[in-house]
Amino acid sequence: GQYLDYEKEEVEAQPRQWKKYDFHYDNVLWALLTLFTVSTGEGWPMVLKHSVDATYEEQGPSPGYRMELSIFYVVYFVVFPFFFVNIFVALIIITFQEQGDKVMSECSLEKNERACIDFAISAKPLTRYMPQNKQSFQYKTWTFVVSPPFEYFIMAMIALNTAVLMMKFYDAPYEYELMLKCLNIVFTSMFSMECVLKIIAFGVLNYFRDAWNVFDFVTVLGSITDILVTEIAVSDMSCPPSGARRGFLPEGPLPRCISRLRLRSPLPGCMEAPLQGRSSGTGCRLGRCSFLRERVVLRGSLGQWPESRLEAPGDP
């Protein structure tokens, strides 16, 4: 077909042409470059959309024509960067360690002796607060909060709280949303009680010396603030509904689980290496996901409340 070109002085009919995307699979080299781009995580949703919309040779795209291709991209994006890249990095590290062992083998000390010396040099004593008076209420509270059953119970509550956060869906019944709201209040109350018990057991200064305790306290305080702000928004009809504020720190349960795991046996090697290797960008990605999530929810809430100030006509 043809189309009319109005950019010039005279209107001309130009033939329509299908141009290639920046990343495609027309040959092996471009296919490898496309897969490498997908593995880096930059721009892969657009490549996924182009692949899903592809139809046949010499034909135009059709939205959602090959939805089954999305499974390939999801599996490739998860498996390749998470496992294969880290395995490649691990092989490089092992190679350097072997070269270092060859150099150190010329020394008079054996490998185990060198390991003992390195451990003695780098070891740091663990400090743990314990009340001196074993007959006091503080000592009994401390015994309770540091016990393994209490830690496992809190981990179970965090897992259940994570499941409740994932149970929300669009256009849910009022009774269902009310149930999730009540469960959120129950979990927030339990985590608040945990913070109170730990403050009583460790004392204010000793409690806030641990960065993980500070994180737990900020998360609980933010959850309480979220509940209060949501209730105020529901009572005030001039504000958007509670859907615009669905949860404060939604990524909180994962770091809280990791904070509990630090007290137990070390993480398996297959999980510890990726976590340490990607720790530099984890916070940035969580913040970016949180920003996008709140942006989508806010746009949906504005569509439901056209009379709100953000939608008022004539606003600058």
- Per the principal axes of the C-alpha atoms, what is the gross shape? flat
Helical content class: 55-70%
Distance between the termini: 44 Å
Radius of gyration, whole Å: 28 Å
Keywords: Calcium, Calcium channel, Calcium transport, Disulfide bond, Glycoprotein, Ion channel, Ion transport, Membrane, Phosphoprotein, Repeat, Transmembrane, Transmembrane helix, Transport, Voltage-gated channel
Protein name: Voltage-dependent N-type calcium channel subunit alpha-1B-like
Subcellular location: Membrane
Catalytic activity: Ca(2+)(in) = Ca(2+)(out)
Report what the structure shows.
This protein has 316 residues and is mainly α. Helices cover 64% and strands 3% of the residues. The chain contains twelve helices and two strands; from the N terminus they run E-E-H-H-H-H-H-H-H-H-H-H-H-H. The chain has a two-stranded antiparallel sheet. The chain is flat and about 95 Å long. The C terminus is likely disordered. InterPro entries: Ion_trans_dom, VDCC_alpha-1_subunit, Volt_channel_dom_sf. GO terms for molecular function: high voltage-gated calcium channel activity. It is found in: Membrane. Pfam families: Ion_trans.
Q: Briefly, what is this?
A:
The chain has 316 residues and is an all-alpha fold. The chain is built from twelve helices and two strands; from the N terminus they run E-E-H-H-H-H-H-H-H-H-H-H-H-H.
Kindly list the characteristics that best describe this protein.
316 residues, mainly alpha, Four Helix Bundle (Hemerythrin (Met), subunit A), two-stranded antiparallel sheet, 12 helices, 64% helix, 3% strand, disordered C terminus
